[in-house]
Amino acid sequence: MTNNIKRLSRGFTIIEVMIVLVIAGLILVIVFLAIPQLQRTQRDNARQSAVVRLKSEMETYASNNQGLYPFGPGFSVDCSGGSYTVGNWNDFYCRYIDGEVDLQDPTGVPIITSNPNPGDCNDVDGCVRGYGTFGLPSSAGRTAVIYGAKCVGENIEASGTAVPASKKFAIVIGLDRDNTRYCVDSG
After folding, report:
1. For a tag on the chain, would you pick the N or C end, based on fewer CB atoms within 10 A?
2. Which residues are CB-contacts of 22 (< 8 A; sequence separation ≥ 6)?
3. Taking a C-beta distance cutoff of 8 angstroms, is the pair 135, 96 a contact?
4. Where are the domains of the chain?
5. Closest C-alpha among 172, 168, 174 to residue 183
6. Residue 40: how many other CB atoms lie within 10 Å
7. CA distance 11 to 26
8. pTM value?
9. What DSSP string describes the chain?
10. What end-to-end distance do the CA atoms of the chain give, in Å?
């Protein structure tokens, strides 16, 4: 008789097993929902930091070159030339970015290149152009440097003149978060 009582008291009831399974399921759901959101937030933070760093490098370039920002003509893919015209993009990129600063999107794509697209900024890996009618980056990691512009929230509006000698500029990058953008300007 005592053996039967001892045998019945061992193990878990079906309710206890169900409670453990429900708790484990809730933990898994929370983890699988939280991790992707955390990853998106980290990628967006890295993109924002890269854009702020790019702005800082552009300000440093201007202060070292009598106030000239690198919006002049001179886009190329080769930084081996050694001598570039002050005030053009190649001079800035080759002296301040190439091999000096890591300005990559968290996905590994550079947020700006030595040969940025001067046309529509909607879906290119980087563009540098004057303010005008064109699309802004719509995809995460896409970047636009717009001279003659300032930030208004995540968008831009005209500020100063849209000529290469402009001292006003905005840098816009697409984010993961609900297809929004982050904008920083020269102030």
Report:
1. N
2. none
3. no
4. 2-185
5. 172
6. 16
7. 24
8. 0.73
9. -HHHHHHHHSS--HHHHHHHHHHHHHHHHHHHHHHHHHHHHHHHHHHHHHHHHHHHHHHHHHHHTTT--S-BS---S---S----TTBHHHHIIIIITTT---B-TTS-BSS-SS-BSS--SSSS-EEEESSS-PPP-STT-EEEEETEEEETTEEEE-S--STT-S-EEEEEE-SGGG-EEEEE--
10. 87
Print pLDDT tens along the chain (187 aa): 555 555 556 778 899 999 999 999 999 998 888 888 888 888 889 888 888 988 888 888 888 888 888 877 666 656 766 667 777 777 777 777 776 777 777 877 777 766 565 555 655 556 676 676 566 777 777 788 888 888 888 888 887 776 766 788 888 888 887 778 889 988 8
Check if the beta carbon of residue 162 is closer than 8 Å to that of residue 128: no
Q: Which residues contact 69 (CB under 8 A, 6 or more apart)?
A: 58, 61, 62, 87, 147, 164, 166, 167, 169
- Take residue 85 and report the two structure tokens written for it: 């015209």
